[in-house]
Write a structure and sequence with these properties.
Blueprint: H1 2-9, E1 49-64, E2 67-68, H2 81-84, E3 86-87, E4 95-102, E5 105-111, E6 114-129, H3 133-139, E7 146-151, E8 156-176, E9 179-208, E10 218-229, E11 246-258, E12 280-294, E13 298-303, E14 306-309, H4 310-314, H5 319-326, E15 328-331, E16 336-339, E17 343-353, E18 356-365, E19 380-388, E20 393-395, E21 398-401, E22 408-409, E23 411-414, E24 418-422, H6 425-430, E25 436-448, H7 571-581, H8 598-610, E26 615-621, H9 628-648, E27 656-660, H10 673-679, E28 681-687
Parallel strand pairs: 26-27
Antiparallel strand pairs: 1-4, 1-5, 1-25, 2-3, 4-6, 5-6, 6-8, 7-9, 8-9, 9-10, 9-11, 10-13, 10-14, 11-12, 12-16, 12-17, 13-15, 17-18, 18-19, 19-20, 19-21, 20-23, 21-22, 23-24, 24-25, 26-28
GO molecular function: calcium ion binding
Organism: Flavobacterium glycines
Subcellular location: Cell outer membrane
C-alpha cells in the first residue's frame, strides 16, 4: 500500500539523470558517418563517405547509484527487484534513463572541403538528483506498518521528450602542411512532445498503516513542491502534441588533425579521401545549446502540509488529479520552458599503428542540475581501443561516469550496413552489482569515397598528374625531369640547361672572366688577371719598395732591389752599433758584462732587429797591459759573451759570429790611460 503512493508521487523522476553520450564508442569511428554529427558537427567534412544514409538507429541507457543487480537476472520470471537487488542508500541517490532514436538521416559532400548533414531524431531525457534513498528503503518495506517523519530530499526532477530536425554544415577551416583544422555547426528545430518537472522544497513524509481499514491508512506530508507539465494532464490525460510547443538548439564543434605523413614529396596526401591521414586527432564541441517552450504548459506550487489517506489516492485517476484534489495549489506564472542538457565534449584519437586506434573522451555538463526544468548530463570519461577498417570495426569502451560510480566495459561491432554495441555489456556479464546498462544499434547505407587513381604509382593522383603513365616528382607535376644538354645534370638542378657543363658548376661551363688563362674555379682573383703560379692573382708588393713579395726577402719592410727588398745596413748604422758597443763594460780581467751595460745592449738588439737579414761579426779587443796570451783569450770570451746576450734576446745565432784579437788591433796608444780604455772594446762588423 505504501509503495503505491510513494512510487506514484515520484514516478516523474524514476530517480534519473541522463547519460553523457549516445552511441558510446561508436561515434568516434572514422566510419561512424552521420551519427558522428551528434557528438561533433565538424566530423562530417573530409570524411570517408561520399554519402552516409541512416535508415534507423537507437541508443538507450539506464544507470543509478541505488540498486545493483546481476543484469540478466532482471529479465527472469519471478525476479523480485526489491528483495534481490543490492542496495546502496544515501541521503542523495540518483539513477538514469536515456533514449535516443535517429530516424532517416543523411550526410553528403557539397564540395571537396564542405559537407552537409540532415537528420531526424527523437530523444527522451529523465533527470532527478538528490533523492533520499533511505526514505525509499523505508517505504518499500511491506512488513513495516509505519515509519517516522523523514526528509524526502531536495530533489529536482525533469522528464522531457522531443523531436529534432537538424541540419549541419562543416568546412575545412585551415590546411597547411601537417596541420588540418575543420569546424562545424548544427542548427536544430525542436518539437516538444511531453514534459514533466518537479522541484521539492523541505518535503517530509510520515506513514501510519491502518490494518483493519487499509483505505484509512494515513500519509502526513510537509513542505511544498513546484510541479509542472507540458499540458494539463488532470483535465486531459491523453498526450496532446502541440505544434506550437517548439524551440531551437545549436551544436558547435572543432576538429584538429596532425598529419605527419604530409611532406614535400607527399603534398597530395590531403586529397586522399578514402584513407585516414592523421596520427593524432583532437576534437572539441559544445552540444545542446537551446531550449523549447510548451505553449499549453502548466505549472503549480503545491502546499504539502497535510495528512491524506490511501482512499484519497485510490480515488484519483492520475497523479495530476491526485495533487489537484488533495493539496492547495497556486499557479506559477511564466511560460513552461524546458532547457536542453548543454555539455562540452573533448576527445583525443590516436592512430597507434595502421588500423589500430585509441580514443579518450571527456563529457562535462555545464548547466546547473538544480535549475527548474533543466535537463543535464552525467559527467563521463572513457577510453576506447578500436580496430577500424572500411567494412568492419570493433571497439571496446572503458568508462566511468557520475552516479553509477563504477567502471563499465563494453563491446561494439560495425559491419558496413549494420552496427551494434554497448558501453557496459562485458562488465554486466561478470558483475553481480551492475548499476548501469546501455545498448545501441543501427542500420544504414554507406557510400564510401572511391580510391583515387595513380597509374604510375608516383604518389600523385592522375587528376593532378601531367604525366599519369610515367612516374615523376610532385615538383614537376608528376613528370620525370629532363636533361636537354645531356650533361648528366637534370634540368631542375642545371643552371645552364641548354649548355653542357660539369656538376661542380651546377651544369654550366667554367668561365675565365679576367682572361688570364686560369679558370674561375681555380682563380683566387677571378676578375683580375694574374699568373697561374699565384693562383690567378697578380703578385703583390706589400711594402711598396718595387720588389715583388715573391722576390722580397723583407716583404713587409721597404728595402732595395740590390738587397733583395731588404733595407741595407749603412756606414752610419754600423757606426751607431759601435757607439753602443764601445759603452759595454766588463768586470776587470773577466768576460762578465756589467749590469749598467744592458741599456746599450738593448739598443743594439733593436737595430739588429730592424735589419733582420744582415749578418754581423763581434770582434773583441784588449789593451797591452798584462800577458798577451791571456788578453787574447779574454777578448774572445768578451766577444762571445756579447754574442750570447744578443742570442738570448732573440737575435738568430745564424746571423752572429764572434772572434777575439787580444792586443793586436789597437785603435789608440797603450801608453795613456785614455788610449788603453779605447783599445778595450767589442766592435760590430757587417758581414757581407
Amino acid at each position: 500500500m505504501k509503495k503505491r503512493i510513494f512510487l506514484s508521487l515520484f514516478a516523474l523522476a524514476g530517480f534519473c539523470s541522463a547519460n553523457a553520450q549516445s552511441y558510446l564508442g561508436y561515434v568516434h569511428d572514422n566510419y561512424a558517418g552521420v551519427q558522428s554529427v551528434l557528438y561533433n558537427p565538424a566530423s562530417i567534412v573530409d570524411s570517408r563517405f561520399k554519402t552516409d544514409i541512416n535508415l534507423f538507429s537507437t541508443s538507450s541507457s539506464v544507470t543509478n547509484d541505488l540498486y545493483g543487480v546481476k543484469i540478466f537476472d532482471v529479465f527472469k520470471d519471478g525476479y523480485d527487484f526489491d528483495l534481490e537487488a543490492k542496495k546502496s542508500f544515501s541521503n542523495a541517490n540518483n539513477a538514469a534513463f536515456n533514449t535516443d532514436v535517429m530516424g532517416p538521416s543523411v550526410m553528403f559532400n557539397i564540395a571537396p572541403k564542405h559537407s552537409l548533414a540532415v537528420f531526424t531524431r527523437a530523444r527522451a531525457f529523465l533527470n532527478v538528483v538528490d533523492v533520499n534513498g533511505k526514505v525509499i528503503n523505508d517505504i518499500t518495506k511491506d512488513n513495516s506498518s509505519s515509519f517516522p517523519s523523514a526528509n524526502v530530499g531536495s530533489l529536482n526532477g525533469v522528464g522531457n521528450s522531443w523531436g529534432e530536425l537538424g541540419i549541419s554544415y562543416a568546412a575545412v577551416l585551415y590546411q597547411r602542411g601537417q596541420h588540418f583544422l575543420k569546424g562545424g555547426i548544427t542548427a536544430k528545430y525542436l518539437q516538444g512532445i511531453a514534459n514533466y518537472h518537479l522541484q521539492a522544497n523541505g518535503v517530509t513524509m510520515a506513514y501510519n498503516e491502518n490494518v483493519i481499514l487499509p483505505q484509512n491508512s494515513t500519509y502526513t506530508t510537509t513542505g511544498s513542491v513546484v510541479y509542472g507539465s507540458s499540458q494539463d494532464f488532470a483535465a486531459n490525460s491523453d498526450l496532446d502534441i502541440d505544434s506550437k510547443s517548439r524551440g531551437f538548439g545549436v551544436d558547435l564543434g572543432l576538429v584538429y588533425e596532425w598529419r605527419p605523413e604530409y611532406t614535400a614529396d607527399r603534398a597530395d596526401i590531403n586529397d586522399l579521401k578514402e584513407v585516414n591521414k592523421y596520427k593524432l586527432r583532437f576534437g572539441l564541441s559544445v552540444t545542446d545549446l537551446g531550449s523549447m517552450k510548451y505553449a499549453k504548459g502548466v505549472r503549480n506550487m503545491y502546499d504539502l502540509n497535510k495528512t491524506i489517506t490511501q482512499a484519497n489516492y485510490d480515488n484519483a485517476d492520475s497523479f495530476d488529479e491526485f495533487l489537484k484534489n488533495n493539496y492547495t495549489n497556486v499557479p506559477v506564472n511564466g511560460t513552461v520552458r524546458s532547457y536542453l542538457p548543454t555539455a562540452i565534449h573533448a576527445d583525443v584519437d590516436w592512430n597507434i599503428h595502421n588500423k589500430f586506434y585509441l580514443n579518450a573522451i571527456g563529457d562535462i555538463g555545464v548547466v546547473s542540475k538544480t535549475k527548474l526544468n533543466q535537463n543535464s548530463i552525467a559527467n563521463r570519461v572513457s577510453v576506447t581501443p578500436r580496430y577500424e577498417s572500411k567494412w568492419f570495426s570493433a571497439y571496446m569502451p572503458i568508462s566511468y561516469m557520475d552516479y553509477s560510480k563504477q567502471a563499465q566495459v563494453g563491446l561494439g561491432l560495425r559491419t558496413g550496413v549494420f552496427f551494434i554495441g554497448s558501453g557496459s555489456i562485458l562488465s554486466n556479464v561478470v558483475s553481480k552489482n551492475s548499476k548501469a546498462a546501455d545498448i545501441h544499434l543501427g542500420v544504414k547505407i554507406p557510400v564510401y569515397q572511391k580510391k583515387a587513381k595513380d597509374q604510375d604509382g608516383d604518389g600523385i593522383l592522375d587528376k593532378d598528374d601531367e604525366c599519369p603513365t610515367v612516374a615523376g616528382p610532385v615538383e614537376n607535376k608528376g613528370c620525370p625531369w629532363g636533361d636537354r644538354d645531356n650533361d648528366g645534370i637534370l634540368d631542375k638542378d642545371d643552371k645552364c640547361p641548354d649548355v653542357a657543363g660539369p656538376a661542380a658548376n651546377k651544369g654550366c661551363p667554367w668561365e675565365d672572366k679576367d682572361k688570364d688563362g686560369v679558370l674561375d674555379k681555380d682563380d683566387k682573383c677571378p676578375t683580375i688577371a694574374g699568373p697561374k703560379e699565384n693562383a690567378g692573382c697578380p703578385w703583390p708588393d706589400t711594402d711598396g719598395d718595387g720588389v715583388l713579395d715573391k722576390d722580397d726577402k723583407c716583404p713587409k719592410v721597404k728595402g732595395t732591389l740590390a738587397n733583395n727588398g731588404c733595407p741595407e745596413v749603412t756606414t752610419e748604422v754600423i757606426k751607431k752599433l759601435n757607439d753602443f758597443s764601445k759603452s759595454i763594460l766588463f768586470d776587470t780581467s773577466k768576460a762578465t758584462i756589467k749590469a749598467e751595460s744592458n741599456a746599450k745592449l738593448e739598443e743594439i738588439v733593436k737595430v739588429m732587429n730592424e735589419y733582420n737579414t744582415a749578418n754581423f761579426k763581434l770582434e773583441g779587443h784588449t789593451d797591452s797591459t798584462g800577458n798577451a796570451a791571456k788578453n787574447l783569450q779574454l777578448s774572445k770570451d768578451r766577444a762571445a759573451a756579447v754574442k750570447d746576450y744578443l742570442i738570448a734576446k732573440g737575435i738568430s745565432a745564424e746571423r752572429l759570429s764572434s772572434e777575439g784579437y787580444g792586443i793586436t788591433k789597437p785603435i789608440a796608444s797603450n801608453k795613456t790611460v785614455e788610449g788603453r780604455a779605447q783599445n778595450r772594446r767589442v766592435e760590430i762588423i757587417l758581414v757581407k
